[in-house]
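TEACHING EXERCISE
Course module: macromolecular assemblies
Task: Read the component lines below, then compare them to the predicted structure of the full complex.
Student: A.B.
Group: 4
Components provided:
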Amino acid sequence: MPDTMPPADADQNGAYNYAYLDEQTKRMIRRAILKAVAVPGYQVPFGGREMPLPYGWGTGGIQVTAAIIGRDDTLKVIDQGADDTTNAVSIRRFFAKVAEVATTTHTAEATIIQTRHRVPETPLTDGQILVFQVPIPEPLRMLEPRETETRTLHALSEYGVMQVSLYESIARHGRIAKTYNYPVMVNGRYIMSPSPIPKFDNPKLDRSPALQLYGAGREKRIYAVPPHTQVKSLDFDDHPFEIETWSECCALCGSTESFLDEMIVDDAGKRLFVCSDTDYCESRR
Amino acid sequence: MYVAVKGGETAIAHSLDLVADKRRGDRDIAELSLEQIDQQLGLAVDRVMTEGSCYDRGLAALAIKQARGDLIEAIFLLRAYRTTLPRFGASEPLDTSRMVAERRISSTFKDVPGGQVLGPTYDYTHRLLDFSLAASGERPDAATAPADTASDLPRVGDILQRDGLLEPPPAQKEAEAEDLTRQPLVLPADRPLRLQNLARGDEGFLLALGYSTQRGYGNNHPFVGEIRYGHVPVSFVPEELGFAIEIGEIEVTECDMVNQFAGSHDVPPQFTRGYGLAFGHAERKAMAMALVDRALRAEELGEAATSPAQDEEFVLSHSDNVEGSGFVQHLKLPHYVDFQSELVVVRTLRAEVEKRREQSFLSQAAE
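Instructor-supplied answer key:
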């Protein structure tokens, strides 16, 4: 795959508006985004549309991207850190087609990065926007299934239930056994789901110079972390937050600092570890 | 040596080709036309229009053809198209007493004004495979009586309501109806919004929930006050005219379910209603919807809401098959990263357990 692709030609686009969504819908989504940026970590309900991709496959992120993208943007789409996983390819093709936008695999060249389950290893910079695809925006959902309840808990900052669940994990396992979708406190006010990124990526969210937008299509919620905002992973004084570590290094680039994916390479179950972030890995080889 | 899994782009292109090829099937067999689907698989078209929230037989037939008969996929296709259409406004409420009914039955009275009309129904077919259909052959037209278009068809519920035995329908709201396809569902929802959700809801899901109320999970002692199916005119008030004009007719199935109600502190005992409406001919859907609608009114009527069908948040959040289908199937997407994180922690935890075991073994041996 070439690293930077020119915009696709817009032959069949007559039937749809630029970037698929009609302008009214984009305005509605932009309003929700502005509100989300103004109240970091707060989940703003929005009139999520039915997208031509299935719910649960990134419709929230796609709507956010469609609302903010312009012809001057350069888009990068990753899934599990990789540019070449099928769903990332599919979403990138979608925008190349409906938004006539240049796409890239280089983190540094992208103005918008839509992601599922990872934050790129290469540090983000001012002016970049990271769009997360979010399956379940409510961090308290697995503790309290009712939206009417969790809304009240957020309003009152009544987060004891989350602290208790982390404590129970320590009591049972001797450590906080939550590994991905690890809850964070944003700007000292709202507990937020960072989406199912590994907790390895949580520190990258803290005071990031990039704008973070989170879109949940099926649940119809948008939330945001503005640049340089405090994002603290929940923990206890005697059980501080810690990230995953590997005793191996990347088999391709030798990195000891990146998140590693494990592969099984033969019938005997031999394992190999490689960077999950394909762009980072390739740039180091 | 490890070879990176590349080429997603090409794989997707080939997959698209394959699915299109599969859809067409054996080229020696004549291709289905949209007219054939509309005429001969009409009930499938009805379901796709209902749950797709779009009354267009041609588009629904196209969706069914494209989806190879997978109706949930067809509903998804139709919805994804519908969402791009501009909205001109809301029609006047349908007046189903003006229906030219092809079918109309009540199970609460032996006879009702306007009569019982059996119409086309599978109810009294014996479910024997009709092998004559396996061979093609023309069928003579069925005998029909001319439709009575001269007079309105009063609803059975309205007659009961005159005696105060049945609660009146809710007063018409002044404000324009909210639209679930434009605004997020905010809970608790009012009844019109709930009905909108149920009308779009999956028939199978509503059927199971409605069935559960009959088996005692929130029973509300239902009777079919009336089911009617036929054509109703649709009126719309264009802003520039300021008065209603008829813009067409649609086929709908309406179910008015009559349910027992013991009465409360303020209300004497009377019957209450559950309501179901679907595009086309869809009695199973309309009846299930009416049962669930009534179950969801538990709180309003001062009943204890203890069963799944009475739980508004549970029902409304899980009724949509396009949402459910997408989210269940997203599990097919790669989850390498989350899984890797889980592997790391499970290994760590197991190592710790192993270490503890060894230590306790050693200390026991030392004693």
